[in-house]
Amino acid sequence: MEGRMVGIYFEGRQIILPGAYATTKVEAFNIQRPPLFKRLAVIAPAQGGVPRGFTRITSGSEAARVLRGGVGLALVDLALDPSREMPGAGEILFYRVNAAVPASLDMGNLRLEARPEHAGIYSNGFRAKRELHPDGYYLLWVEDPASGVLEESPPLGPALELIYYGSGTPSAQVSTDSEGQKHLILQGGAPYENHDILIGGSGIKSIQELADFLNGTSVWGARVLHKHHLYDPGGFPNGALTFSGGRAVLDLGLSAQLQWLKASTLVNATATGGTDTATGMGWLYFTGGNEGPPVTLGDYEAALTALEAEDVQAVVVGSPDPAVQAMAVAHCEYMSHPKQRKERIFFGGPGLELNAQAQKEAAIALARELQSERAVIVGTPVRRRNLRTGQVDDLPPLHVAAMLAGMWCAARPEVPLTNKTIYAQGLTYRYSQVDLEDFLKEGVVPIAQDPEQGTYIIVQGLTTWRKDTNPMRRKLQGVSIRDYLTRKLRLYTKKFVGAVGDATTVESILNAVETALAEEVRGGRNPEGVLTTGTGPDGEPEPAYKNITAVFDGIELVAVEFEAHPVGEVAYITVTAFLTPTRIVRSA
Question: Which of 35, 59, 214, 418 is most buried when burial is the number of CB atoms within 10 A of its CB?
């Protein structure tokens, strides 16, 4: 038998004993973000959201509830609802750049502080109260009146009634050993009635579990009081218990309040070691909440550093400062390098200027400073009705850029933003055709009114790239297609990393690339895709892609190369009519 296989191998193990064996495969539940999906990052001050942290937002109602106000909410609103022709961003990763301070309340032995997502002036409206019931338990209320959220505690404190059924004189005490582990030490009338029970820490984890244990002993029993079943018995204070009629009560004291407050959506709580000053005083209001110091360039730098770890494809900042926007463009260029594998585009623009000429000059100056295929700069402000206030506001180009970012995130990569409409009620400043051409020559995206339809359109989707006229760099659509293909090809080939480097694997990699490209060829049966067939210089049909090669260097690198033809953008249409005379002859 030596050298021969016995039985079978299943899931990496040898099985010799005959029988039925089964396993389950759950790899299909590993949801990968598809290359089509584009998520927008908005970095701005707001009146809600975690200070200097990220908050995920997917709807306008969620944005209003979480962000509450400020530039951040305005930008998110615009990105979510930019147009009546195209949808907005499906998901926004919001970073609250201002270091807002949460309001707090000192209750003597307990300090309540608004949770980070509520930090700022808003949390000054929070209130709390604490009452002591005649039966010896406490009641706590924490409320956010503005949103109608009220958290009301169950009776807190007395958590477990300890019962002794033996004939001796019982004693019990809670103590903490040198390693910080709590013990409940019970003594009865005989040695077998004595118990040293570990509670909390590495011991029993809940009051209910402790009660079950005690009820399983010979002479001890227990009953959970009120609703403390899931509370941690490690919160019992040290000390001896007083028995009366064979019964004693274990009281969690302040620990019960702290444990209940752990589940609060409004506040965090800490024990202060002080004396209770709040019980019976009615509603007490929080104080000290503020929006933090003025936001600095360093704050935006920290936000962009934090954003490096996130999966986003577009970036908007809440400051018109050219230094901030230059930093954001540099971030996008860095993250878009093949080494980083996180392609991104920045959407920005100047603030609102006093007149049309100043506005034009500010936009062109910004575009010249931010020359990059990774930057889209909007140059013209618009008038738009604020759906929350009902007022028509003049939106600076920076805010209009958030609208374009939202539209871009929702669109397929081959769909240009050129000639797409935005939701607006007017233009703050009107520009001539010469002005609009000046914007485009400088890589600035203007908004104009369609003379026939009366709608407000994106004249052309451009980046600020000006080193040459390469449309795959200068046009937003070109950059979008490149990024999309890059992400898709990574997705289709990364599963081979770590595979055996042989002819079969190299062939599989080549086939994976060909499959990815074939899916992108537009045609009658595939109306969506970023590649197109054409006509070669010789007049013969040209395939959408060709000359795919995969070369393994024999050590660790498989290099894949191919040629492909991306779709373009119809930006200009010329119609030439050749008019010629014709004879007219009549006869009777």
Answer: 214
- Structure tokens of 28? 């299909």
Interior/surface letters 382-404, b for 16+ CB within 10 angstroms, e for the rest? bebeeeeeeeebebbbbbbbbbb
Question: Nearest 5°: phi and psi at 43?
Answer: -115, 115
CATH architecture type of domain 40-97+293-479:
2-Layer Sandwich (3.30)
Quick: pLDDT tens for 535-578. 988 888 999 999 999 999 999 999 999 999 999 999 999 999 99
Bridge-based pairing of strands 220-224 and 158-164 is: antiparallel
Tell me, yes or no, if the pTM score tops 0.85.
yes
Helix runs in 395-460, H state only: 397-410, 433-441
Question: By C-alpha distance, which of 481, 444, 439, 450 is closest to 464?
Answer: 444
Q: CA nearest 419: which of 388, 458, 361?
A: 458
What phi, psi does 373 have (nearest 5°)?
Answer: -70, -5
CB 149 within 8 A of CB 265: yes
Q: Report the distance separating Cα 59 and Cα 308, nearest Å.
A: 24
- 163 within 8 A of 246, measured Cβ to Cβ: yes
Angle ∠(393,397,401) on CA atoms, nearest 5: 105
Residue ranges of domains in the chain: 40-97+293-479, 158-252, 499-588
Strand-pair partners of 287: 104
- Pull the structure tokens for residue 219: 């002479």
Residue 215 · residue 158 · CB < 8 Å: no
In sequence order, which residues have a C-beta less than 8 Å from that of residue 127 and are 6 or more positions away?
Answer: 105, 142, 143, 145, 283, 284, 285, 286
